[in-house]
């Protein structure tokens, strides 16, 4: 008997990788990729066993169609001010549809008190899921290695530099491929219900060390430039980043600067049966993005 898995935010960095890895399984899994726009999800349709469904969080008919016959949910909400409301709507839809397991993409430090805004949003969603009565697994990854592709590749390529207000703080970066692997294991394996998985890469690195690895692998000098918060905020606003988002990101960078993201967990080995990618492996695999 087949299992139908719905992935929300399926065109995002993590969602897309979860869909890809699920499609590579030989198991009887039906993959339903929830997207905001069918056009944006066009590439996912090329993967075996993947069905595209357009989802609008504020349209009940849309959610009803998306959740029909769904057994499990991989829950990703976008980085927006109303992400808590969006997530609770999805959890309610999942409960009404009889979904048997929710795997939520959360964030490292979501349980911290008082925490930062990003963490508080994630924790409110976690608590709503915990009270929903639906079995769940919470994934709390550290900062994504792939963020350097999305936000820093251009300056690394053109200037040999990348800029962040993080000082010498070390970060246990994790590869998105490993986050997806943990999610797939939770969705398709057994014994993951009620578990909270803190997910990191195998090492904590300062951005000075990150720059050194870039330099060695790319064969060119790459420099990390530490910048003041005010300069980072001004740059974000100049790129039309909303003020609330800039402030939330600066809170996060402040944690990195103070060394609160340097703890390394060995969770990946236990959940997936293999070690996570190192930062050097990431740069080697994504080399073409930076040269």
Characterization of this structure:
With about 290 residues, this protein is of the alpha/beta class. The chain folds into two domains: about 5-140, NAD(P)-binding Rossmann-like Domain (Rossmann fold, 3-Layer(aba) Sandwich), CATH 3.40.50.720; about 140-175 and about 200-260 and about 275-290, Alpha-Beta Complex (UDP-galactose 4-epimerase, domain 1), CATH 3.90.25. The protein has helices spanning about 15-25, 60-65, 85-95, 115-130, 145-160, 175-190, 205-220, 230-240, 245-255, 265-270, 280-285, and strands spanning about 5, 30-35, 50-55, 70-75, 100-105, 135-140, 160-165, 170, 195-200, 205, 225. Strands 3-2-1-4-5-6-9 form a seven-stranded parallel sheet, with helices on both faces. A two-stranded parallel sheet has the order 7-11. α7 packs across α11. The mean pLDDT is about 95.
Kindly summarize this structure in a few lines.
Helices cover 43% and strands 17% of the residues.
CATH topology of the largest domain: Rossmann fold
Shape summary? globular
CATH architecture heading of the largest domain? 3-Layer(aba) Sandwich
As a percent range, the share of helical residues equals 40-55%
Number of domains: 2
Q: What is the CATH first-level class name of the largest domain?
A: Alpha Beta
Biggest sheet: strands, sense, closure?
7 strands, parallel
